[in-house]
Amino acid sequence: MTKQWIKMAALPVVFGAGLYLGAMTNQSMAAENLTKADVEKIVQEYIMNNANVILDSVDQYQQKTVREKSIGAIRDNVESLTKDSTAPFIGNKDGDITIVEFFDYNCGYCKKVLPELQKVVAEDKNLKVIFKDYPILGPASETAAKWSLAAQRQGKYFEFHKIMMEHKGPIEDATLEKAAKDAGMDVTKAKEDAASADIMIQIEKNRTLGNQVGVRGTPAFVIEEELMPGAMPAEQLRQKIEELRKAKAEKK
Fold first, then answer.
1. For 167-206, what is the HEC assignment?
2. Nearest to 134 by CA among 195, 218, 78
């Protein structure tokens, strides 16, 4: 805990203790006659009796700081997040709302959230969903991400993505080759592309981008200027999109 956090968190305690001191004027000992030791005792008693106040204040301040930092980082990286014309996506390329998903092929929650995303995209013709391969769950995840980006080179990204998200069990070379074949890809070319340096560079760019905007796990969504970690059901996505459109309309 930094000194700045302590100072900010202590404000409600000091304010509350001040009110407590004010109440003392109704007692036999007036506030102006209190000694330093008396004041320290009163403040200590207040803190002991209201420990939740300072803890809640610290928690709220931390959340506010993290949120503001994340918004700033998203604004700084908006081009890489939403304006990258090479990024794989589904939906309307000119949609008024863009959702960016950071995912890992070994992430069970990522697998569960894909059908929810598909539902919302099918209903909303003005929505764009961008996929950022973000392998953080081991070497197999990284290999799968390489094949995923190799699929994009053949115009088969989402076909491959969907097959891999439906896959259950460990990801092995045979798994990837079968997924590529089922997606209608040239497997030999995909294998060569997956081993290329530029695809590895793209994955590292995604990792750097995710780290900069505060992604700490998968799935994680960036919706406009907000980072929203964890799997989101279709209803929650719809509600968030509606809120954003309403806010945009009010600004006009």
1. CCCCCCHHHHHHHHHHCCCCHHHHHHHHCCHHHHHHHHHH
2. 218
Please state, in angstroms and rounded to a whole number, the distance separating the CA atoms of residues 141 and 170.
10
Residue 159 pLDDT grade (very low, low, confident, very high; cuts 50, 70, 90): very high
Task: Enumerate domains of the chain plus CATH numbers.
Answer: 3-76 (no CATH), 79-251 (3.40.30.10)
Please name the residue ranges forming H helices in the chain.
3-23, 36-49, 51-76, 78-82, 108-123, 139-153, 157-166, 173-182, 187-194, 197-213, 234-251
Residue 28's pLDDT is 43
Pairing, β 226-229 against β 220-223? antiparallel
Look at the alpha carbons of 248, 216, 231, 151 in this order and tell me if their dihedral is positive or negative. Answer: positive
Angle at 91 between CA 220 and CA 187, to 5 degrees: 80
Give the pLDDT confidence of 39-61 residue by residue, as tens digits.
777 777 776 777 666 555 555 54
Q: Can you give the pLDDT at residue 14?
A: 47
Query: Which pLDDT score, from 0 to 100, does residue 3 have?
Result: 45
Query: How would you classify the pairing of strands 97-103 and 127-133?
Result: parallel
**pLDDT confidence tier of residue 8, bands split at 50, 70 and 90:** very low
DSSP single-letter state for residue 32: G
Tokens of 151: 């699929």
The partner residues of 100 in beta bridges, in order of sequence, read: 130, 222
**Signed CA dihedral, 33, 38, 40, 41: sign only:** negative
Cα 207 to Cα 238: distance, rounded to the nearest angstrom:
27
**Residues sharing a CB contact under 8 Å with residue 103, sequence separation 6 or more, in sequence order:** 110, 131, 132, 133, 134, 218, 219
In angstroms, rounded to a whole number, what is the distance separating the alpha carbons of residues 212 and 205? 10
